[in-house]
Amino acid sequence: VYVSDGNSIYIIYPDKEFFPITLNQSSGYLKGITIDGGNIYCADYESPAVFESPIGPTGYIASDVFDIFAGFNSFNIGSTPLNNPNGIAIDSNKNLFIADTGNNSIFKVSIDNNVGNTVLGVVGSFTKINTAIDVSDLLNPEGIAIDTANNLYIVDSGHNQIRKITDRKST
């Protein structure tokens, strides 16, 4: 099990042993963690970036020096820099989804080729509407999860809703 307390990542083993790892290049505000089997990814809310590190065969993270996977001046995410990345999740097609709270958007980055773009929300839109809300009206998305059918679940904290996105042909 991998857990973050905001400052460090902890690996907790079945025998109750735990091993803390502090990211040297992090701002110290780690929000989201996800794994894809061979790597661990963590979102740093204030840097703003998503970091990546390989996981060794015993489950240990190889180093406290993580590589930047996305963020910092638009690295791997297109023309818009991340602005307070929060929740992250990986689908079965090896796409990393980032709930980018400050941009009111969801970014998708392919793990295989590191190409990314905005797939939901309108970057920079802060308008809260009182009528029916569609997926382009995200307001402060904080969490994201993906089920076995590749449906996206987004915690839209500004609208006090959990959004389920089932038709992902365009995402």
Features:
globular; 171 residues; four-stranded antiparallel sheet; mainly beta
Give an account of the 3D structure:
The protein is mainly β. The chain is built from no helices and 14 strands. The chain has strands spanning 2-4, 9-12, 18-21, 30-35, 39-44, 49-54, 67-71, 85-90, 95-100, 105-110, 116-121, 141-146, 152-156, 161-165. It has a 4-stranded antiparallel beta sheet with strand order 4-5-6-7, with no helix packed on it. A hairpin with a 3-residue loop joins strand 4 (30-35) and strand 5 (39-44). It starts with a strand and ends in a 6-residue tail after the last strand. 35% of the residues are buried. Mean pLDDT is 77; it is low at 126-132.
Largest sheet: 4 strands, antiparallel
Cα shape: globular
List the quaternary state of the chains.
single chain
The Cα radius of gyration reads 16 Å
Q: Tell me the helix content.
A: under 10%
Q: What is the overall pLDDT average?
A: 77
In which order are the strands of the major sheet placed? 4-5-6-7
Uncertain ranges:
126-132
